[in-house]
Amino acid sequence: MQKFFLLLLVMGLYLSACGPANKTTEVSDITGAYKLVSINGHELPYAPPHEGGAPQVLSSTLTLNPYGTFSMTMTYGTSSGGSVSRDFHGTYTREDSVLRFQWEGAGQTPATLEGNTITIDNEGIFFTYQK
């Protein structure tokens, strides 16, 4: 009887490993550095529309790392004519041409991938990066 239960356990483990494959594709083929080229179709520098105002974005780099992590540096203009940079980090997943960024300490942001172009939809403000 114990052998029968052991056989059932082994068969159950085997069958669970043969389940449907995860639809998320490999992310390593899109890894690398991307440069921000426009916000809502406007070239940089540009201050995106935002309730209460937003600082002018001077530049940004998005780096997709292997194994689904990313980093981003965004440089803003200051009222004194200088600049300040902020670093962001998190994880991302890819399913076909759709990316999802999970920001460290924040929420999720959807994006689309078309060739070497990633467009991030941040609450209706579109940030377009090119590799």
Secondary-structure map with pairings?
Elements lengths: L1 H16 L14 E8 L17 E9 L3 E9 L5 E13 L2 E6 L4 E7 L2 E6 L2 E6 L1
Antiparallel strand pairs: 1-2, 1-8, 2-3, 3-4, 4-5, 5-6, 6-7, 7-8
Sum up the structure in keywords.
eight-stranded antiparallel β-barrel; single chain; 131 residues; Lipocalin; mainly beta
Decide which structural class fits the backbone. mainly beta
Q: How would you name the CATH homologous superfamily?
A: Calycin beta-barrel core domain
Largest sheet: 8 strands, antiparallel, barrel
Shape estimate: globular
As a percent range, the share of strand residues is: over 45%
Low-confidence stretches: 1-27
How many domains? 1
Q: Any idea of the CATH class?
A: Mainly Beta
- Radius of gyration over C-alpha positions, nearest whole angstrom: 21 Å
* H-E order: HEEEEEEEE
Quick structural gist:
The protein has 131 residues and is mainly beta. The protein is built from 1 helix and 8 strands. It has one helix at residues 2-17, and strands spanning 32-39, 57-65, 69-77, 83-95, 98-103, 108-114, 117-122, 125-130.
Q: What does this 3D model show about the protein?
A:
The chain has a single domain (21-130), classed as Lipocalin, CATH 2.40.128. The longest helix is centred in the first third of the chain and has 16 residues, at 2-17. The chain is mainly beta. The N and C termini lie far apart (61 Å). It is 12% helix and 49% strand. It has an 8-stranded antiparallel barrel with strand order 1-2-3-4-5-6-7-8. The protein has one helix at residues 2-17, and strands spanning 32-39, 57-65, 69-77, 83-95, 98-103, 108-114, 117-122, 125-130.
